[in-house]
Amino acid sequence: MKLNVRLLVESLIVAFVLMAIFFIWQIVQGYFLTKKIVHSFDSTMAVDHAFPSNVVITSSNSGLNWSVSVAVFLLMAVVYYGIRYLFIHYKRSK
User: What is the DSSP letter of 36?
Assistant: First the structure.
């Protein structure tokens, strides 16, 4: 099996886009989940403490660590490459 560089680059791009969509979706879900939170204030609580302006919240508390993210990225790239390679090979053989 000869390595098709164009197909390899396409596979990496597709895997990157899918991972980006996954992480962006977590951020969007977190935004909508925290939008529904009603804060209760007492007289001693400062507004700056209650509403930090630089917080990015995701919907998943566990999160993916880097090794799992890289493994999923490579798995998606390999699966996409294999499917596209078989599709192209099947199309050429007909």
Answer: T
H helix intervals, 1-94 = 5-35, 47-50, 66-93
Which DSSP category does 51 fall into?
S
* Structural tokens at position 42: 């007492």
CA dihedral 2, 69, 57, 23 (to 10 degrees): 20
Which range is least confidently modeled, 21-30, 52-61, 80-89? 52-61
> pTM for the whole thing?
0.63
Q: Which long-range contacts (CB under 8 A, 24 or more apart) does 87-90 make?
A: 88/4, 88/7
Kindly report, residue by residue over 2-53, the tens digit of the pLDDT.
Answer: 778 899 999 999 999 998 998 888 888 878 877 766 665 555 555 555 555 5
- The alpha carbon of 51 is separated from its chain's Cα centroid by a whole number of angstroms, namely 26
